[in-house]
Design goal:
elongated, alpha/beta, eight-stranded mixed beta sheet
Length: 311
């Protein structure tokens, strides 16, 4: 159906979402199985399953309300029909956020992407994997090591840059991150680079001074190159559940997040958080991480995501 390469990606996605599938959709299947009609008791149970699976209260109520409207309109809804309705509603909440992938047209020349997020979410690894995939799509890449507070981040990026054939711009440990970002874009413009990836420090979202520094980096990029950064991607760890919603809201207020990268989906049953964050904050999920391999960083596709949850 999806072709050989896509099928491999789908298999990786299904494997990576195994815990979420067992937890969330396994519970939904047990709830729905054998029901002849959908009554208030079923809808109440549906609401409980969604809320306790980190989908979020607001999004859960929206899904249940839409199911209620369908039931009222159709008068009779079987268990199979209810399952289909749930799938359709989840896809609808995510459908408008389709990303075209690493080979799609770029908004700027160079196209500047700023990567933000707290410590430990897999931000630097995500930068490295994105560099690799852009290079595989035929794009030249320059990486800016603006996480100057964690020395290991620079070493990590050096390995990734070599692997991807990307250029790495760095300064000494403790240097001004905005200065690194400036140098990175300057170098990329001089070289005619297609894509610039700016790695930033693992900001604690509760520290205003650190959030202000991210805003400073963003302003420096904008003054240097019109429209930059063209994307601000927030990396979130799926395993923290509803705390990811808080982080997304905080970062979005400081740097106007344009897209999300949800990592570590393979190690958690809380993958339902994707649905809630995307719907409630209106921030599209651009990429998801379903494992440690290069191919496990995938462009997010709502249809594939829901298909994997029901596999």
């Amino acid at each position: 159906m999806f072709g050989k390469k896509s099928k491999s990606r789908q298999e990786r996605l299904e494997r990576g979402l195994g815990k979420t599938r067992t937890s969330l959709f396994g519970r939904l299947n047990r709830l729905i199985r054998g029901r002849d009609t959908v009554d208030d008791a079923v809808l109440d149970e549906l609401e409980e399953v969604l809320v306790t699976s980190d989908v979020g209260v607001k999004t859960t109520l929206e899904i249940v309300r839409r199911i209620q409207e369908r039931v009222a309109r159709d008068r009779y809804v079987s268990s199979a029909e209810l399952e289909q309705h749930i799938r359709e509603e989840i896809v609808r909440l995510l459908h408008d956020h389709r990303h075209q992938g690493f080979g799609s047209p770029l908004a700027g020349n160079p196209h500047v992407i700023m990567i933000v997020g707290v410590n430990g979410v897999g931000k630097t690894t995500t930068v490295g994997k994105m560099a690799y995939h852009y290079a595989q799509a035929g794009r030249s890449v320059t990486i800016g090591a603006a996480d100057t507070f964690r020395a290991a981040a620079i070493e990590q990026l050096e390995v990734w840059a070599q692997r991807a054939g990307a250029t790495l711009i760095k300064q000494r440990h403790g240097a001004d991150p905005a200065s690194v970002a400036y140098d990175t874009v300057q170098s990329a413009m001089a070289r005619g680079t297609d894509v610039v990836l700016i790695d930033t420090a693992g900001r604690l979202h509760t520290r205003t001074s650190l959030m202000d520094e991210l805003s400073k980096i963003k302003r420096v990029l904008g003054r240097q190159h019109q429209g930059a950064p063209h994307e601000v991607l927030l990396v979130l760890d799926a395993s923290i559940g509803q705390n990811a919603m808080v982080q997304a809201a905080q970062f979005s207020r400081s740097v106007n997040v344009t897209g999300l990268v949800i990592t570590k989906l393979d190690g958690t049953a809380k993958g339902g958080i994707i649905i809630g964050i995307s719907n409630e904050l209106k921030i599209p999920v651009q990429y998801i991480g379903v494992g440690e391999q290069l191919e496990d960083l995938q462009v997010f596709d709502a249809q594939r995501f829901v298909a994997a949850l029901y596999a």
